[in-house]
Amino acid sequence: MxxxxxxxxxxxxxxxxxxxxxxxxxxxxxIESYDPTIEDSYRKxxxxxxxxxxxxxxxxxxxxxxxxxxxxxxxxxx
Length: 78
What we know:
The protein is α+β, with helices and mostly antiparallel strands. The chain has 2 helices and 3 strands, in the order βαββα. Helices cover about 30% and strands about 35% of the residues.
């Protein structure tokens, strides 16, 4: 069975729900309290049309400082 890997970065302002949506997708839980994220990473394996798909998900802090650090790498990605 073939396997494909994708790297996903969740970006956005602080307090908008990035971590809640990520936890809902990866762990099937909903986070109701706000605890500011510094940086969390997750891995989820899915079966899509008989193929293993591996998602590496980076949940980022909603700070301008983080965005400035990541922006040069984003310009190089596809």
